[in-house]
Each structure stands twice: as C-alpha cells, then as structure tokens.
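Researcher: Next entry in the queue.
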Amino acid sequence: MPSNNSVADTHMTLHSLTLADLALGLERRDFSSVELTQHFLDRIARYDNASNGGLNSFITVTPERALAQAVAADTARSNGTAGLLAGIPLAQKDIFCTQGVKTTCGSKMLDSFISPYNAEVISRCDAAGLVMLGKTNMDEFAMGSSNETSYYGSVKNPWDVSRVPGGSSGGSAAAVAARLAPAASGTDTGGSIRQPAALCNLTGLKPSYGRISRWGMIAFASSLDQAGPMTQTAEDAALLLQVMAGHDSKDSTSIDHPVPDYRATLGDSLAGLRVGLPKQFFGDGLNADTAALIHAAVKEIEKLGATVVEVDLPNSGLSVPAYYVIAPAECSSNLSRFDGVRFGHRCENPKDLEDLYKRSRAEGFGSEVRRRIMIGTYALSAGYYDAYYLQAQRVRRLIKQDFDLAFQHCDVILGPTAPETAFALGAKQEDPIAMYLQDIYTIATNLAGLPGMSIPAGFVRGLPVGLQLIGPYWSEARLLNVAHRYQQVTDWHRQLPTAFA
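Model: Structure for this entry, 501 residues:
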C-alpha cells in the first residue's frame, strides 16, 4: 500500500500517521487497535475540553464503545477476518444517528435525543471495523460556516485558537487537524466539508449527490445534503469513501451506480488532463495571497502533464442567492417535525397546543436556525412561491447547465475553496451576509449535485489555504487521482499545527 510516512516505531507518533499507515501498522502488529484507540482518547482528553480552553471539537466522546470496538477489531485481526481499516479510530459528525448514543445535530432541540438506530454511514463504518471515538461538534442543524451556531459552543481552529475552523463540519475538521482522530465524517450542503477542510489544512471530499446514503443523517436541505470523508490525504479519502459509498435501498435519494476501487487509479498519469479555471472564481472577492497560492498549485499540476483552459460559469454569481432561497425552504419543511410533541425539546407547562409549538421551537432552536426557517417559510408561502422558490430552482438549472458546458472543454475545474483564510471567532456573527459569502465558491457544486473536494495548497501568514477541485457526476476517482498526484509533489498536507504535533 502506498504511503507518505513510515510506520511509527513508538506510540508517541501514532497520531501523525495516515489511515494508510495505520492500516499497515495494524497488519504488521506494530500496535493493537486497543493501544491506538486509547492513544487518541488520551489526546481528546488532553486537548479538547472546552472548560480548560480546549478545542471543543467533540460533543460526545464514547470511550467504552470505542474500546469495545477496538477489542473486537483486534480479535478479528487475530482470526484473519478483519477488513483493511478494521481497528482504526475515526470521529463521526453529530448529524448521523447512532444507536444508543446521544445525537444532537448541535442543537438544544435534540440535547436529550438518544437514537434508536444507526444511520447507514454509521452502519457501514461499523461493518468495516472502524472504531468510533465520539460525535463531533457542528453548526446547529448544519446551518453555518464557522461552527459558531452550535448549542455546545464554538469550535476553535487548531492553527490559531482565536479563529474559526469553518463549518458546519468544523468539529470534524478541528479534530482531524489537531490529530485527535485520524479521520472523520462530515456533511456538505453548501460547502460544509470543503470550507472547513480548507481552513484546517485537510483533504475533504463531497461526493456526487446520491453517492453516499442519507439514511439516518438528520436533514437540513434534502436535495443538497451529502456526506463525505475528511482526512489528511487523498489516499485516506479514497480509503474512507470506499467504506461510505454505495447504494442504499432505504434512501430514496441514493443512486444505484457501481462503486469503483478508488485507490486503483490514484497514481494514474495526469498527462492530457484538461484543467478548467473559471474566470468568475478569480475576481475581486478573492484574497490576493490566496489567489497566488491557487495559481501556484495549478502550475504544479501543469508540471504533472495537465493543460489549463479558461472556462465560463456565467451564473455562478447567482449561486448564493439561489441557495439561500432553496436551502431555507427545504429546512423549513424538514424541521417542522421538531414541534415538542413527538421527540426533541418540549417546553414546560404549555397552556395549549399552540403554546407548546411556539415555546418548544423558540427555546429549542438557535437564532440562525430560526432565521432560515422564517426565510424558507416565507419563500414557500402563497404569493411568493413563484417569485422566489420557483425562480431559484430555475437559476439552479442554469448553474447545472453552465457546468455541463464547461465540462465539454475540461475534465476538472480548479479554483479556491474559500475567499479568505480562517477569520476570528465572532468577526462575522453580526453580519449574516458576510458569513454566507464564505461559501461563494462551493455552493454551486451542491446546487448542481457534482463532486468537489478541497486539498491543502499552502499557507498565508500561518493559516491554511485550500484548493478546490470539481468534476462531472461520478468523477470522484478522477478528483482523488489529481489530488493524490499533487500531494506526491507537495507537502502542505503533511503540516501539523505546532501545538498539537
């Protein structure tokens, strides 16, 4: 198995190893899953406690469950029945229902909810023998770009704890960046895997819509939400995607399409690859230092045999306003189930049914969630549906058509993941529009249902910058190939925050 690092000689460096390295180490019996799991549990205890100034990347840590899974993995390896990733720890975003474990979606509304079943993503990871360390913090109901809307408090960026890690999968990003877990799951509705991956120096992949089951993933916007891996390297992303991907008959949005061997083509040549650079991604809104790093990354990919062409995505500038009609409309429908009657937070001593609904929702939902529910309800209301929601869906179709035309001239599209590096905690909380614009380069991909990923591309004043890759439907293997070849000639992805090394 190809690997960027050698297997550790001592347990002190276990956290610096990739999934590929850890799999090799377990196979060689260099360490056991129990030792590996305890190592990461100890790091979580040391670095994550919010009351002691820690990162606050986990909402729930599950040491008993993790160690039991580790024992089972070690037994399976002894019996010769273990899969490739058996015994390797990972963190799961707290948006995936997990049987017998609190599943909150970062909200007071679900603070006491213990899921009676597993999401399909959890089931697939369990079946592969992966060890769940716990559930990671996130923006409430995945609504946010900074991980500051969580009921459980803000997550800190390991590269600078005064700054945000991005969102909504900021807990997963921070945990992997600080090596409190070697990998994590995330979800991406408008950039929520790729943007935090960029801000925390990770590889984050949002697959094609329908590639990974949404069964048991608490819904925000059902036509946009998609799960994916957050890892150190493209090779690791391929390994984890292999576990997560596949058709699920329980999910009506899951597509029955063959799952390739994502590692098999990682090392393929990039000779003849056509790279498209959208002129709309390099305008005035992009930080100049970030732009310079993106252009430098493109030159490295050119050296590997690719050719660069300019492409046009004329409607991409409409992606943010279209998204902030469609996503709130879908969230207003999905979150209507949280009414204080069936499950979730219930207010005390309601006077009547109307009072129960109003106070349960007002107490259970945070301000950003309430804002989006109100916007969505308005957009779907009689007299405004045609003017807003239907118009946004027409724009969505135009955005998809722009990508279809662009991919007639190129194989992948490259550009920045985020317009700037990680900003200070609290800097944009009073300006929702400025916060929404953090996803200006990622949202169009979700609207079109296409796969996209972010990989480390350098640093600006000590803060990571991400390079975004976008491909046609079902082109995850190609994106992983480009990312892997780039990572073979650069070392940005190997950099760790000094305080957590």
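Model: The chain has 15 helices and eleven strands.
Researcher: Noted, moving on.
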